[in-house]
Amino acid sequence: MTVECSDKRRNDTGNYTVNLIRNSAPVINSLPDSVSLLEDVNTNTLLHTLNVTDIEGDNITCLLNSNSSLFEVTLIPPSNTEYGIYLKGGTNLDYDITHSYSMTVECSDKRRNDTGNYTVNLIRNSAPVINSLPDSVSLLEDVNTNTLLHTLNVTDIEGDNITCLLNSNSSLFEVTLIPPSNTEYGIYLKGGTHLDYDITHSYSMTVECSDKRRNDTGNYTVNLIRNSAPVINSLPDSVSLLEDVNTNTLLHTLNVTDIEGDNITCLLNSNSSLFEVTLITPSNTEYGIYLKGGTHLDYDITHSYSMTVECSDKRRNDTGNYTVNLIRNSAPVINSLPDSVSLLEDVNTNTLLHTLNVTDIEGDNITCLLNSNSSLFEVTLIPPSNTEYGIYLKGGTNLNYDMTPLYSMTVECSDTRRNDTGHFMVNLIRNSAPVINSLPGSVSLLEDVNTNTLLHTLNVTDIEGDNITCVLNPNSSLFEVSLIPPSNIG
Question: 355: closest CA among 391, 407, 317?
Fold first, then answer.
């Protein structure tokens, strides 16, 4: 430039040059090429503190050359004297979508600037690891309560929160936190389930553990253990039973075992009006085969009964065949009954003709009678003991040999189920007439006699000793046969 100085009339000039000193741009010092960042970070995070110098000491402003929704360069609080490269808060980084971000940092003193390239390399989040998951577990099909099958051992190198579940939902199984700590996950059988080996003997499932970004899976199979049926041990093929038994009678105590220790119920496979399987009182710990009380068995109608005993643990059962063979009741036996007895036709009082000897091998009560009723004879208990039966002539009878010289009858003795009979005959003994002994053919009598005069004393005998009466066959007005006084013994 020319400098001119004048006194309004004349002037002097001089040339003057201003040489500018160029403002130096600020300098970004030691900016690293890149930084590594876990993709899981989503909070406002300082990645690098910028070291920026300006030889003129100008105020410096730093920013990203192009705006970014994920990163920014801003003053570092609370001093706000330095700039830092930040990951913005609330971001969602995903290594699998973008594994690195490149950006240009620009620092300016409002006249000139310095730039630097900066790259953020994401560190891929590692999936959690399910350690030592067994291929399978065995489980009794009877289990129906909430049951822990396996405790999961899951690790995550980043220490992320882990959630585990079954890859597809199951109505029977689940993966859930194990109470009360709720720090580990377990594979559970849900409570209230009904498993059946015969329908499905194994269940395969996929266990998935995730840190909400990546997951690890493992295959797990539950193999059901088939419930064993209870076993009826040493059930005999048959038992013998007297047909006379009609009370509640234990025929056999069942020996039933179950290897799982299940509760067992036993019954007859088809109901019976005569027999039943029920708990044996008073312990009620064992089952027995019983004849029901009040039954009526008859060998002649049905001599054996076959039945099927079934014992079940409510899932499976064992059966056994059992037969009750009736023992036929033996009829009582009339021992040594004589064919006949002889009886004076004159007897007319209640008279024991024969004491019956009757035996019964079962010891049953015995009743004896005449097969057909008789007005003359009867079979009845012999007093006073009333333990034996006798054949009696009834009192007040009138027997007459000349009309009926013998009587045949059938004696029947019964134990109310079967009987024995015997034939018995009563032969009447004819009553002998009295005998007039040594009666003279005649006697001489003076015609003058007119007083009551004994002409002859009769000698009369009777072998039965009956009372005898003597008379003149046709009555006479002159003679008579009469007892001789005073003894009246002739």
Answer: 391
144-155 pLDDT per residue, tens: 999 999 999 999
Based on the fold, state whether residues 290 and 367 are members of the same structural domain: no
- The reply to whether 285 and 202 lie within a common domain is no
Evaluate whether residue 344 is within a structural domain: yes
How confident is the model over 349-358, as a mean pLDDT? 98
pLDDT tens digits, one per residue of 457-479: 999 999 989 999 999 999 889 99
Total of domains in the chain: 5
Note whether 62 and 83 are within 8 A (CB).
yes
- Mark which of 407, 429, 451 sits at the end of a domain: 429
Please give the C-alpha separations between residue 384 and each of 27, 93, 369, 376, 387, in angstroms, as whole numbers.
Answer: 147, 119, 18, 22, 9
Nearest 5°: the CA angle 107, 109, 115 is 25
401 within domain boundaries: yes
Q: Are residues 221 and 133 in the same domain?
A: yes
Query: Do both 215 and 273 map to the same domain?
Result: no
- Give Cα 236 to chain centroid, integer Å: 23
Range of the domain at 149: 129-225
Q: Return the pLDDT at 487.
A: 64
Q: Say how far apart CA 172 and CA 191 lie, in whole Å.
A: 8
Instruction: Determine, yes or no, domain membership for 364.
Output: yes
Average pLDDT over residues 258-268: 95
pLDDT, average across residues 193-199: 95
- Specify burial of residue 336 (Cβ count, 10 A radius: 0-12, 13-18, 19+): exposed
CATH number, domain of 93, equals 2.60.40.60
In the chain, the N- to C-terminal Cα span, in Å, equals: 220
DSSP letters, 183-207, are -SEEEEEPTT----TTT-SEEEEEE
| 24 phi, psi to nearest 5 deg | -80, 140
pLDDT(238) > 90:
yes
Average pLDDT, the chain: 95
For tokens 């079967």, the residue is 418
Do 414 and 367 lie in one domain? The reply is yes
Domain boundary among 429, 463, 480: 429
Tokens of 192: 């209230």
Report if residue 5 sits inside a domain. no
Q: Give pLDDT, residue 488.
A: 55
> Which phi and psi angles does 10 have, rounded to 5°?
-140, 165
Is 119 found in the same domain as 144? no
Which has the closest alpha carbon to 307: 236, 224, 396?
236
DSSP element (H, E) containing 289: strand 287-291
In terms of domains, do 187 and 262 share one?
A: no
Characterize 300-312 residue by residue with b for buried, 16 or more Cβ atoms within 10 angstroms of its Cβ, and e for exposed: eeeeebebebbbb
Query: Hey, what are 484's tokens?
Result: 């001789």
Place 416 in a pLDDT band, splitting at 50, 70 and 90. Answer: confident
pLDDT for the residue 132: 97
- Mean pLDDT, to the nearest integer, of 429-448? 94
The answer to whether residues 239 and 211 touch, using CB atoms and an 8 Å cutoff, is no
